[in-house]
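Record 1 of the preview.
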Amino acid sequence: MARSFMLLALAVAVVGCAPVDNTASTSAGPTTSTACAKDQLSLINPGKLTIGTDKPAFEPWFKDDDPSNGQGFESAVAFAVAGELGFDRTEVQWSTVKFDSAFAPGEKQFDFDINQVSITPARAKAVDFSNGYYTVKQAIVAIKGGKYADAKSLAELKDAKIGVQVGTTSLDAVKKVIQPGEDPNVYNEQIDAVNALKNKQVDALVVDLPTAFYVTAAQVEDSKIVGQFSSTGGTPEEFGLVMEKGSALKSCVDKAVDALKSNGELAKIEEQWLGSAVGAPELR
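->
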């Protein structure tokens, strides 16, 4: 689960409300290509763009556990992509899809899924990914005053009991980058890992950086971000939209994502909902 900011003040701003209109995208206009014209797209439900994500849908990625309201980074991105493909809000429908089911092999009941799914070679064997829409860093969260709250390096976390969600690149990062002396506590749901930290069943929690800011601002009292780190040590980790393997939509979705990057809309959405990088020192 698989599943950057100022601290509390900015985190509150991150999850604040934004005006909602009936336009799926505020970008310059739909992706222009005959092959990508709305009436030429192969869709799960004719005339509707079906987008999958998990439930509950957490902030700052979504707002009020309601992907359809256009608020939160990933809801806004999804509607912006929909707009580039020619769909307005009334033509978008949402489907509940468990995080690890989204990138499991097999037929999908969505046109694309958006749920903080990192692009990895292993996952790409089972599904298609769009071009990346967000570059990810991992983060370590601990309770203030705890043994590992003031760690200055990853090496200092070798003896920590770490909580993390199953099936996530955060888990991969714990195993491959932090390499703790004992196996991490692995939870089926992100909220279970968060509660483990809250109840001091683990020393630290590893999640992506935006989630870490939300955890410290709204979920775990007296918690802090110890620091951030790269989960790969090489090529940057990116989130991608997930599609069924061999999806006829992939090239059109890629064009939509690329258009949102080139016209600056994706950067605007990121700035609105994810803020700027303050309060999370780099750990090596």
